[in-house]
Amino acid sequence: MKSIIGKKLGMSQYFKEDGTVIPVTVVEIQPNVVVQVKTFDKDGYEAMQIGYGMRNKQTKAIKNHAKGLGSFANFKEFEGLKNGEKEAVVGGKFDASLFEAGEVVRVTGISKGKGFAGAVKRHGFHGMPASHGHKAVMRHVGSIGQRFPQHTLKGLRMAGRMGAVKTTTRGLKIVNIDLEKNTIAIKGAIPGNNGGTVIINSAK
């Protein structure tokens, strides 16, 4: 299992040698530094804590926790003491070279927030008929329950806040890796806004 944290820069195009154009999303791989290694003996489980992103102001708590490794904006914990073939060592770094072009990955991020949305947009409801006596009810939900048990059941699909949730897109292919700029070009779209944090995981 391989995992790395990056920042979504936006979509672009990649031109192959035969002239084929591939739509890609470019992800900048920020410095992924191992800040802490957790073991069975000390913590009861095996994991590695990664520090990523940079912040201008550094609190004493983060300064003490990072032990001079950097001024990190966030921390993320991954299971296991290996990232692919690389061992997790405090102070060790992971970059774009962790993956290879042509590799299939899954990308996790926070989807774009759509705000308050109705049932038609949020859940794909067909809506009411537009004629034969119907007035301004075309996009209404319709019945939300029966006379018994006299309350709305939990989990009913209704209007509400849409988006801004953790989402994973699977089966994405890495088209190109630029080690100089430390970027990965992934075929197709990935979750989140430009500038948002995403996690790239190997498919297996």
Automatic annotation (TrEMBL):
Swiss-Prot/TrEMBL GO biological process terms: translation
SUPFAM superfamilies registered for this protein in UniProt: Translation proteins (SSF50447)
GO molecular function terms attached to this record: rRNA binding; structural constituent of ribosome
Keywords, comma-separated and alphabetical: Ribonucleoprotein, Ribosomal protein, RNA-binding, rRNA-binding
Regions annotated as coiled coil: none
Family designation: Belongs to the universal ribosomal protein uL3 family.
Function per UniProt: One of the primary rRNA binding proteins, it binds directly near the 3'-end of the 23S rRNA, where it nucleates assembly of the 50S subunit.
Record's subunit section: Part of the 50S ribosomal subunit. Forms a cluster with proteins L14 and L19.
Protein name, entry field: Large ribosomal subunit protein uL3
Organism: Candidatus Yanofskybacteria bacterium GW2011_GWD1_39_16
Lineage, highest ranks first: Bacteria, Candidatus Yanofskyibacteriota
Gene: rplC
